[in-house]
Amino acid sequence: MLYAKAGDVFFEEARRYFTVSDGDLSQMAIPDYQSIMLPLLKIAADGQKHHIGTVIKTLAKHFSLSESEQKEMLPSGVSTTFGSRVGWHARILKKRTW
User: What is the dihedral of CA 76, 80, 86, 88, to 10 degrees?
Assistant: First the structure.
């Protein structure tokens, strides 16, 4: 079992992916890597080339993400959380295409 309190590194990392309400952790609406994979594969299944920006928008609509969820940035401030997750999978798919 993991324990964390405000200020702990683990807590600060986990807080980005969970919200605390009444002492319980409940998942936020931004989907995790595993949840993104199947919808992304369905998009890629048509064999056509897709621009990553269009794929991100399509998947954001699929998951009913709010504008603020779509704009949520990674701690580095370089890219959005959702865009990074989609992009990670897209790069893996591209590398495994032969």
Answer: -10
Tokens for 20, please give them.
């605390």
- 63 and 42 assigned to the same domain: yes
Let me know whether 77 and 46 are in one domain. yes
Residue type, 75: P
As a whole number of angstroms, the distance between CA 65 and CA 70 comes to 6
How confident is the model over 4-29, as pLDDT tens digits? 444 444 444 454 544 444 444 444 57
- The token pair at 17 is 């992916």
Cα–Cα distance measured from residue 93 to residue 95, given in angstroms and rounded to the nearest whole number: 5
Q: Is the pTM of this model over 0.90?
A: no
